[in-house]
Amino acid sequence: MTIEILSTGEEIRSGAIIDTNAAFISQLLEDAGLPVTRHLSVGDDSGLLVSVFKEISQRAQVAIVTGGLGPTQDDLTTEAAAEAARKKLFLNKNALESIENYFHSKNRQITTPDQKQAYLPEGAQILDNPIGTAPGFEIKIGSCTFFCMPGVPREMKKMIKDIVLPRIIELLGHTRIEQESITYSVYGLSEALVGERVNGLIQKYQGLRIGLRADFPVIYIKLSFHHSDSALAKEVMASSHQWIYEALGDKVFSARNDSMADVVGRLLRQNQATLALAESCTGGLIANWVTDAAGSSDYFLFSGVTYANAAKSDILGVPAALIDQVGAVHEDTAKAMAQGARHAAKATFGLATSGIAGPDGGTADKPVGTVCIGLATEQKAAGFRYHFPYRSRSMNKKVFAMQALDLLRRELQQVNSR
Amino acid sequence: MTIEILSTGEEIRSGAIIDTNAAFISQLLEDAGLPVTRHLSVGDDSGLLVSVFKEISQRAQVAIVTGGLGPTQDDLTTEAAAEAARKKLFLNKNALESIENYFHSKNRQITTPDQKQAYLPEGAQILDNPIGTAPGFEIKIGSCTFFCMPGVPREMKKMIKDIVLPRIIELLGHTRIEQESITYSVYGLSEALVGERVNGLIQKYQGLRIGLRADFPVIYIKLSFHHSDSALAKEVMASSHQWIYEALGDKVFSARNDSMADVVGRLLRQNQATLALAESCTGGLIANWVTDAAGSSDYFLFSGVTYANAAKSDILGVPAALIDQVGAVHEDTAKAMAQGARHAAKATFGLATSGIAGPDGGTADKPVGTVCIGLATEQKAAGFRYHFPYRSRSMNKKVFAMQALDLLRRELQQVNSR
Q1: pLDDT value of residue A176
Q2: If both were cysteines, with which of A19, A224, B224, B274 could B347 make a disulfide (CB 3.0 to 4.6 Å apart)?
Q3: Distance from the B413 Cα atom to the nearest Cα atom in chain A, whole angstroms
Q4: Does residue A389 belong to the interface with chain B, where contact is any CB pair within 8 Å?
Q5: What SS3 string covers chain B?
Q6: B12 to chain A: nearest residue by CA?
Q7: pLDDT band at B176 (very low <50, low <70, confident <90, very high)
Q8: Any chain B CB within 8 A of the CB of A401?
Q9: ipTM of the assembly?
Q10: Interface residue B294 vs chain A (CB under 8 A)
C-alpha cells in the first residue's frame, strides 16, 4: 500500500510559507497505521501538475492533494486532475449547492469566480467542506484514488478527519491498526549518543519503531508499535520501557513527552513546595518556561532577573564584597543568589544562574559557555560550575536554563524517594 | 534549468516534525533568481532513497538534499547517493580532518560512529560544516549535481549561504540577479489587514514582490525587486517605502527586520537609558526577549518576575492594601509595579505587566486576555488596560509582552523626537 501527499501552490514552492499540511496529514495517517511514503510540493504550473498527477497515479493507491481549489486563475488543481484522468469538467450540482449553502450561511453574495469551484471532473465525488467556500473531490486516476482538498489548514484538517480518513480506511479495506506509543524526554546526551544507545532496541523487537527528535538541548525518543494483538503490544512496550531506562538512566526525565519545566512543576506540586529563581545569564528564560504551564502560580513565586550586579546585591542580598572578590560568575555568588531569591520570596527552593552566554565576555578563566548554578533548600545550599561547548548565545541560554532545572529535578526526586 | 529539493528523514516523512528547511532553501534560491521546481520528502528507506536520487538525476540539473548524514544507522543519505552514482564509499581525509577539528574545538572525544561521517562516495567533494559534526558533500549523478547537507537547520543554513549557493551560481554560469529588498516589522494589525492594505502596492509597481510572514503577534512584510537597473530599483524601493509608512503608520516598528526587543534596546542605548521590568502574567518572557540581544547588559538591569502577590509587595514595594483593594490585575497595580521595579533597580524606565493569560482565572470583569501595563519614567507613571481576544496561554503571554514593549517603544520615540 503506497500513500503519497501532494501540496500545491506557488507560496509553498517558493518558500514564502512553510507547508504544515503535509506534516499534519502524515501524522494523522501514521497514527491510523497508514504510513505515507512521500511528500511532494510543486507550484501553480499546469503542465507540471498534470504530469505529477500521472506520476503519482502510477506509484500510489491513495494520494492526498492540498491547495489549488479556490476561485482564482492560479487555482489549477481541478483542471490538472481532470486532464490527467482524461475527463471533462462538468458543473457538479451537489458542489454548487454546497457552495451556495456556505455563502448563504455567511450572508454573502455568490460571484461567478466562486461558481467556478463547482466544476468537477466527470466521475468525481464531492468532498463536503462545511467551513469554507471550496469543496473537495475524490477522483480515480489509473489505480490511484486522489483526494483533493483546499490548502487552508483549518478547512483541510476538518475534512481529512471527518471525511477523507474514514473513506481511505473503507477504500483500502484497512482494519484500523492500533498503535501503542510512548515518548521519552532526554537531557544530557547528544542525539548521536542517544541514537547509538537505542540502536540495540530496534534489533530486539521486530516492528518496533523509534523516532528521534531534537529540540535543543532535549532529545525526544518516540517508540511506537503497530499491532492487532494488544497483549503482545503491551509486553513489547513494557520491556522496551525498561530497556530505555537501563540504557539511558536518569537522563530520561519524562516518559510522557513532557518538558523539563512540566516535570519540575509536577514534582514541586507533589511536594507542596514552592520555587524562587535568580537569573542572570538565563535572562528570564527559566521563569518563562516554568510559567508556560497553566496553574504554575501554585508553586512558582518569583524570579529575580538580576542582570546588573547592583540588582544582585540590592534585591537578592548578595554581598557586594563577595561579587568584588570572586566575580558575578562564581559558584559562591550563584549559591548566594539562590539563597537570596529563596529568602526574598519565602520559597521552599531557590535556584540561580550566573554565567557567560556570549558571544562576548569570556575570559581564559571563564570562557563563553561557563555557567554557575546555585541551589538552596531549607537545610542546605550549594553552588556548581559547568562549561558547555556552544558559542551561540541562544543555545547557551537554553542549556544553562535546562541544566539548572535538571539539578532541581534531581534534588526533588531525591526528596521524593526518601 | 531545473532545481529540486529533497528532504530526508523518518521524522519528516511521518509528520513528527515540520520540514522548515525546504521553505528556507526555496526562498534563498528564489531571491537569487533560481526558482526551485519541486520539494520532495521521503523517510529513511534505503531502496526508496536510491530510486529517488536516480529519478531526480533524470529531471534536474541541481538538487539540494538535507538530512541523513549523521552517525546513526538510520542516516542513509551518503550510502544511497553512492549507490545511485554507482560509486564506492571511501574514507575522505578532508572530511575526517574536518570532523576531528570540530571535536577538537569542543574538547570532545571522537567515536567510531562519528568517524562514519567521513566516508564519502568516490569523486564527491566535501562541503565543510564548521558548526556541526557531519560535513556535507557534492556529487554528480548523471547530469545532475547533488548538494547533500545535514538536516539540522542551523548547520544547513550556514552551509547553503556560505558554500552551496555560490557553488550553484558558479555551476550554472548564472549571473546573480541583483535584488533590492527590505523587510518591515509590524505590530498591531492582523495578517489579513496588512495584506489588504499592501495590496495596492503590488498593482503599482510591476515586478515588485511582497511576501508576508507572521510570527505571532508580529507580521513581517518583505518587499523585493529583481533588477538589472539599480537606479530604477532604488527609486521603486524608496517610493514603496514611503507607501508602506503611509498605509501602516507607526504600526511599522522596524524597516530592517528587527525584533521589537532589538528596537527598544537600540532606543534605550541611544538615550543612554536603562530598563527595569516587573512581570507577572508575562512570566519572564519580556526579560528573555530583551536579553536575547548580545550586549543587552548595557541597558537592561533587572526584571522582577513576581508571580506571587507577596513578591509584588515585598520585592517591588507595591502596597498590599492596593492589591487587596483593586486586585493584582489593575492599572494602578501595574503602575505601582513599574515604579517599584524602576526604583529597586535605579533604572531610567520601569515597565510592568499584570494580566490573565489563561486558560483559567478569568472573571466577567477581567476575562482571559486582559492585561494591565504600567510604565514609569523619572517624571511620570501611568497604567493602561487592554483586552486581547486570544484563548491560548502562550499567545496571550506573547501579545502581552509585545504590547508592553510597544508602549515603551512609543515613549522612547517621543523622547527622541523632542
Answers
A1: 64
A2: B274
A3: 25
A4: yes
A5: CCEEEEEECHHHHCCCCCCCHHHHHHHHHHHCCCCCCEEEEECCCHHHHHHHHHHHHHHCCEEEEECCCCCCCCCCHHHHHHHHCCCCEEECHHHHHHHHHHHHHCCCCCCHHHHHCCEEECCCEEECCCCCCCCEEEEEECCEEEEEECCCHHHHHHHHHHHHHHHHHHHCCCCCCEEEEEEEEEECCCHHHHHHHHHHHHHHCCCEEEEEEEECCEEEEEEEEEECCHHHHHHHHHHHHHHHHHHHHHHEEECCCCCHHHHHHHHHHHCCCCEEEEECCCCCHHHHHHCCCCCHHHCEEEEEEECCHHHHHHHHCCCHHHHHHHCCCCHHHHHHHHHHHHHHHCCCEEEEEEECCCCCCCCCCCCCCEEEEEEECCCCEEEEEEECCCCCHHHHHHHHHHHHHHHHHHHHHHHHHC
A6: A23
A7: low
A8: no
A9: 0.82
A10: yes
- The reply to whether A354 touches chain B by the CB within 8 Å rule is no
Decide if A305 and B291 are in contact by the 8 Å CB cutoff.
Answer: yes
Q: Does B2 touch chain A if contact means CB atoms closer than 8 Å?
A: no
- Cβ <8 Å between A303 and B308: no
* Closest partner CB to A192 (pick from B113, B213, B279): B113
pTM: 0.83
Provide the pLDDT confidence category of residue B115 given band limits of 50, 70 and 90: confident
What residues does A7 pair with on adjacent strands?
A: A41, A66
| A303–B contact, CB cutoff 8 A | yes
